[in-house]
């Protein structure tokens, strides 16, 4: 493994995903790792899955997110009416083969000294969030690898744990290469490609160079207006999803 693009929480946002793939190609990545939640919220689930599946056929890594599991299994009883409707709408856009592919996705992957999951390492099947340093340390201690990569939180963050048990964290600056010192264990949350929630409207992903042991978080502007228009035009979707996308891009919850 050399330069790996870490892409997560695409959420069926075709415009954001297309922009990130183009940017990653320009960065010279030679592998992709998709950290779950390919679908949900966005208007183009089938298109996104086709692109991901094509890259997986060439060796990309992919794990299952909570939205992927919900669509694969069908609406769950505890879901709100809006969430159930989104799941049902998304399932109707996908082929049986797409749904089977989502269902078969693993919760975790390990490649060399890298661990990949959607939410955490301590209970990946429960999709618990890493809200801060305590959750991160718990996940770092549960991970079998030096480097752990997750999504789920929709905000980029980097945590580390020293051999003496001292933990630290910080919000990375886009485009800055961060040396991952070998005497520490590292946990990176790669942000969100299709639903950023940190006040920056640009799509977010990260690039890990395992040869140089550096990580960089990237921000990629994309056509947010077209993504919102696609949501508005999609038959059967709540028009408020377009406004929710814009609100969340401005830092809403």
Largest sheet: 6 strands, mixed
Reading side by side through the largest sheet, how are the strands ordered?
3-2-1-11-12-9
Termini separation comes to 35 Å
Number of strands: 12
CATH topology descriptor: Purple Acid Phosphatase, chain A, domain 2
Radius of gyration: 17 Å
Oligomeric state of this protein: single chain
> What series of H and E elements makes up the topology?
EHEHEHHHEEHEEEEEEEHH
Mean model confidence by pLDDT: 92
Protein name: Metallophosphoesterase family protein
Pfam families: Metallophos_2
InterPro entries: Ap4A_hydrolase, Calcineurin-like_PHP_lpxH, Metallo-depent_PP-like, Pesterase_MJ0912
Family: Belongs to the metallophosphoesterase superfamily. YfcE family.
Structure commentary:
- It is a single chain.
- This protein is an alpha/beta fold and 253 residues long.
- The chain has a single domain, classed as 4-Layer Sandwich (Purple Acid Phosphatase, chain A, domain 2), CATH 3.60.21.10.
- The protein is built from eight helices and twelve strands.
- It has helices at residues 14-26, 45-56, 66-73, 81-93, 96-104, 133-142, 224-233, 240-249, and strands at residues 3-7, 31-34, 61-62, 108-111, 114-117, 147-150, 156-162, 167-170, 178-179, 184-190, 203-209, 214-220.
- The strands form two sheets. The chain has a six-stranded mixed beta sheet with strand order 3-2-1-11-12-9. It has a six-stranded mixed beta sheet with strand order 4-5-6-10-7-8, with helices on one face.
- Strand 2, helix 2 and strand 3 (61-62) form a beta-alpha-beta unit.
- Helix 3 (66-73) packs across helix 4, helix 3 packs across helix 5 and helix 7 runs antiparallel to helix 8 (240-249).
- The chain starts with a strand and ends with a helix.
- The mean pLDDT is 92.
């Amino acid at each position: 493994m050399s330069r790996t693009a870490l892409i997560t929480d695409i959420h069926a946002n075709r415009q954001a995903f297309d922009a990130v793939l183009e940017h990653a190609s320009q960065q010279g990545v030679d592998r992709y790792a998709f950290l779950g939640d390919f679908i949900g919220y966005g208007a183009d689930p089938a298109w996104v899955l086709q692109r991901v599946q094509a890259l997986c056929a060439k060796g990309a890594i992919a794990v299952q997110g909570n939205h992927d599991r919900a669509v694969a299994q069908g609406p769950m009883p505890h879901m709100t009416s809006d969430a159930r409707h989104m799941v049902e709408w998304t399932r109707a856009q996908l082929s049986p083969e797409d749904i089977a592919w989502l269902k078969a996705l693993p919760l975790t992957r390990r490649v060399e000294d890298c661990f990949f999951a959607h939410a955490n390492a301590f209970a990946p099947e429960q999709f618990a969030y890493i809200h801060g340093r305590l959750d991160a340390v718990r996940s770092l201690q549960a991970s079998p690898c030096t480097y752990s990569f997750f999504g789920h939180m929709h905000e980029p963050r980097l945590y580390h744990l020293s051999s003496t048990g001292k933990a630290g964290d910080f919000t990375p600056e886009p485009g800055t290469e961060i040396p991952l010192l070998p005497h520490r264990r590292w946990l990176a949350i790669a942000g969100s490609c299709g639903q950023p929630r940190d006040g920056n409207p640009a799509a977010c992903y990260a690039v890990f160079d395992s040869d140089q042991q550096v990580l960089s978080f990237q921000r990629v502007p994309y056509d947010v207006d077209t993504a919102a228009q696609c949501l508005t035009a999609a038959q059967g979707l709540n028009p408020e999803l377009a406004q929710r996308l814009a609100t969340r891009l401005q830092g809403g919850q």
